[in-house]
Structure formats: C-alpha cells, structure tokens
C-alpha cells in the first residue's frame, strides 16, 4: 500500500515566510482529505508562535497537521542588530544546523510510520532539495515572491549578472531580460543590485539566493516550483519561465485565525473601522521587518493628518520609541502595534493601503480589492511596486527624497491620487480575477491539485 501523501512544509523564521507557508499547509489539507502536513520552522520561531503551556497545540485535532520545529543551531534564533558579522554567523549556523536537523526530522518521521512524500520549502533554504533527494523524497520550492522576481533572479544567475553589475548604480537604466519587459535597475531586487559586495549587510542573502538557484539546477529533469501568485496576474512572465515546472497556486490567504510571530494589539480597531464610512480609511503598514526612523514616522503622520482622512496605522512595538511625541498630534487616526491585516483589508471602510509592498501585503491587498500607495524599500518590494503601479494599475509608487525620506506632501498627494483615481476600479476588477482563480476549477485551484497529483505538465 502506498503511503498517504505527506508534505513537509519548511520555512525560514520570518513572518513574511511563515504566513504563506502556513496558508499553503492549510490549502494542502483542504484540497485532499487523506493528505498529511508537517509544518516546520526553527525552534525559536516555533516557541514564539506556539507558546508552551497546557493548551500548546502540536497540530490539528484530527492529527493531519503536525507542528514540529527544526534546529538552526541557536537557542534564541537571530537577534536583530546592526552587527554584520553576527548576521553572517547566524545565516551560516542556520544552513549547517538546519540541513542536519531537517534530515533527522525526515528520518524520524519515516521511523514512526509517517514518511514524508514531498518536501516543500520556502526560499533561503537552498539545502532542502539536497536533504530530500538524499532520502529519495521529491521536493518543490515554494516561491513566496512574484514570478517576475523568480524570472529576474533566474536570468541574473544564468548569464545576465554582468549587465546588472555594470549598471547597478544607474537606477533608470533599462535591462532587457528574456521574456520580461524592459525593467529599470531601480525596480530590481535589491539583493542583486546592492548586496553583491561582501561588505553589504545582506551579502549572505545574496549568496544564499545564488546557492538556491544552483540547487534548482541540480534537480532532474526539472525543478518544480509552486508560486504564490496566480496565472492571471503574471501570465506572460509565467509563460517565459520554461526552465522550471512552475505552478502558480496563489494568492494564499488565511483560513481563520493564524499563528504568527506577533501578538495582536488589544485595541478595538475593527469596532473603530465599523464606525467609518465605506472606503474612507487609509490603512498603513510597513510589514514585519522595516523600522521607521523618527523623522520618517513624523513625516508619515503629518501627511496622513494633512489628508484629512481617517487612518489606521501599524507601528510595531519595536518601533514605538520613534513615535514618542508624534502620538500626541494624532487626531484622525488610530495606531496599533499589530493587527489582523487581512481582516482590516477586507473591511468595507478601508479605501487605500499605504504599504512597503512586501509580497504578502501586496497579494492580500489585491485579493481584497484595495488600491495601494507603495513605499518600497528592499528585497523584492521595488519590483512588487512596479507590478502594482505599471502592470495591474492598482496603485501608485510614492517618491522618496534624495535623503531617502518620504515627505508629508508626497504622502498626501499619493493618497489622494489612489483614493480618487482609477486604481480603485482596477483593484475591484483584479479582486474578481483572483476570487475566480482561487475558486473551484480556477487556475490556482487547478494548479494546486495538479501539483498534489504530480501531473505538473497539466499546468494552467
Ligand atoms: N501583518 C499583519 N499585521 C500587521 C502587519 C502585517 O498581519 O499589523 C502581516 C501581513 O498581513 C503580511 C505580513 O505581516 O502577511 C507581512 O509580510 P510582507 O511580505 O508584506 O512583508 P515583510 O514583513 O516580509 O516585510
């Protein structure tokens, strides 16, 4: 008798990786009643998500979902600091200990009669495919950024690094890559424009990404990659990604409450939204990592107050000190430390999202039909903003000054542009497309099932 399908879903311990991994886990369980899933991230992140205690979950009641951490070789996980050497050391420990520990986990699951039949891993785990292959288990990369970024990285690591390197200080230079429209250097993922020097803080992310593409090249006949996007959103790019078996299965969304690294604010922000007119509120969040300097936070709040519109703004606990005196000047807004973002974006009162354009945030906004003001900073965010503004026309990118600060006047200008312009209509149209893609028989639903049935040539 062949074993039940059992997916080991592995993820790097960042909120923006954990959320789509958990959502995928739920989708896999929902798509096949006999499927098993083991969700695994590092021990420190696991403890934060599922604090110990009598009620600590170890999986779903019916036993189909198990939550089992792997070791990154540290007690505490990465402790954010400006120490470049400490970050490099963490990444090195993560790779060495992670590969060993995940190997032991796969072996232990097999030993207790719950063998893994497919390893699914998010980016930054370039060793996962080798660990799986060594044990005869197939694997798939779960790409949690746009297909456009996958394509850019693919071409960069397959013969096009030189042109990017030659022009990386020229933001408006247009790079032509196969299957993609001409793209300005300023829209490229920052890890290939800013982090190729060993002295850059994120250099180890650049080398990890390079190692990931090397690992994909070792897969035969072709690496399988499931992508958190949908065919309708990125059709031409997806069509040009022939080097891999690529299945767009997103955008993944939460199914009810979701464990994460951050504690929800107790403030009654949903009740606050309930009292506001339809499409009147500006929602503002820069995700789980970006920290705003005091000057930036002051300018942002000044711009939001100046817009005269009600606003709900997330300022994380670790960024609260920078809010200090500015909080006293807040009249039209509400500030929370962390909210249920998808619930907020789904609320009828929300009319626009000022976002750093992390891929999860962008996908959640598209799925909820909310137009965006994009303030991208690093990684894939600039390319995500390009998709939002130029490809889907569901938002506008705000310009920052030469000092890197987004000024109050620009906040006001872009919020008005997005609240009153065509972006809202386009966002409503895209929402419909996404609902269809995710629904029964839609492209993403079809592709997820094709992935689960291993008929990857049947991609839509
Ligand atoms: N998020 C949330 N509550 C908040 C702020 C953010 O739930 O108050 C979630 C958001 O819904 C998204 C994730 O945090 O799923 C942020 O991921 P993204 O890729 O947008 O950005 P990152 O944090 O990785 O920079």
UniProtKB/TrEMBL annotation:
Tree of life domain: Eukaryota
CDD domains linked: GT1_Gtf-like
Cross-referenced PROSITE patterns: UDPGT
InterPro entries (UniProt xref): UDP_glucos_trans, UDP_glycos_trans_CS
A matching Pfam family: UDPGT
Record-level Gene Ontology MF annotations: quercetin 3-O-glucosyltransferase activity; quercetin 7-O-glucosyltransferase activity
Statement: the UniProt record of this protein carries the keyword Transferase: yes
The enzyme's E.C. designation: 2.4.1.-
Keyword annotations: Glycosyltransferase, Transferase
Top-level EC class as recorded in UniProt: transferase
The family this protein is said to belong to: Belongs to the UDP-glycosyltransferase family.
Name this polypeptide is given: Glycosyltransferase
Source organism of this protein record: Lolium multiflorum (Italian ryegrass)
């Amino acid at each position: 008798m062949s074993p039940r399908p059992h997916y080991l879903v592995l993820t790097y311990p960042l909120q923006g990786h954990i959320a789509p991994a958990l959502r995928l886990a739920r989708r896999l369980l929902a798509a096949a009643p006999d499927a098993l899933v083991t969700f695994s991230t590092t021990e420190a992140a696991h403890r934060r998500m599922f604090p110990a205690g009598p009620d600590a979950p170890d999986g779903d009641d019916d036993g189909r979902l198990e939550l089992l951490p792997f070791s990154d070789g540290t007690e505490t996980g990465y402790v954010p600091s400006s120490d470049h050497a400490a970050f490099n050391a963490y990444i090195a420990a993560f790779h060495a200990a992670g590969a060993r520990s995940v190997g032991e986990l796969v072996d232990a699951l097999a030993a207790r009669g719950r063998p893994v039949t497919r390893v699914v891993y998010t980016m930054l785990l370039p060793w996962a495919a080798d660990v799986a292959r060594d044990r005869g288990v197939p694997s798939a990369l779960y790409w949690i950024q746009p297909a456009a970024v996958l394509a850019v990285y693919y071409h960069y690591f397959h013969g096009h690094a030189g042109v990017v390197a030659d022009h990386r200080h020229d933001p408006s230079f247009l790079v032509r890559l196969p299957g993609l429209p001409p793209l300005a250097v300023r829209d490229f993922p920052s890890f290939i424009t800013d982090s190729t020097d060993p002295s850059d803080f994120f250099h180890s992310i650049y080398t990890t990404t390079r190692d990931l593409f090397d690992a994909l090249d070792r897969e035969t006949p072709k690496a399988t990659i499931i992508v958190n996007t949908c065919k309708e959103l990125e059709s031409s790019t997806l069509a040009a990604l022939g080097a891999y078996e690529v299945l767009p299965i997103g955008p993944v969304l939460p199914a009810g409450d979701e464990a994460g690294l951050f504690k929800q604010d107790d403030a009654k922000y949903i009740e606050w939204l309930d009292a506001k007119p339809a499409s009147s509120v500006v929602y503002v969040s820069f995700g789980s990592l970006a920290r705003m300097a005091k000057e930036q936070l002051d300018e942002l709040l000044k711009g939001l107050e100046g817009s005269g519109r009600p606003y709900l703004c997330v300022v994380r606990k670790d960024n609260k000190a920078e809010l200090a005196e500015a909080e006293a000047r807040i009249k039209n807004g509400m500030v929370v430390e962390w909210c249920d973002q998808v619930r907020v974006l789904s609320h009828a009162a929300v009319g626009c999202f000022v976002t750093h354009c992390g891929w999860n945030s962008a996908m959640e906004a598209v799925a909820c039909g909310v137009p965006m003001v994009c303030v991208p900073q690093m990684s894939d965010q600039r390319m995500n903003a390009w998709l939002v503004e130029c490809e889907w026309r569901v938002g506008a990118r705000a310009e920052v000054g030469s000092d890197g600060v987004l000024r109050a006047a620009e906040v006001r200008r872009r919020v008005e542009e997005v609240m009153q312009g065509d972006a809202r209509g386009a966002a409503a149209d895209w929402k419909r497309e996404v609902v269809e893609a995710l629904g029964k028989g839609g492209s993403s639903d079809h592709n997820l099932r094709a992935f689960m049935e291993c008929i990857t040539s049947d991609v839509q």
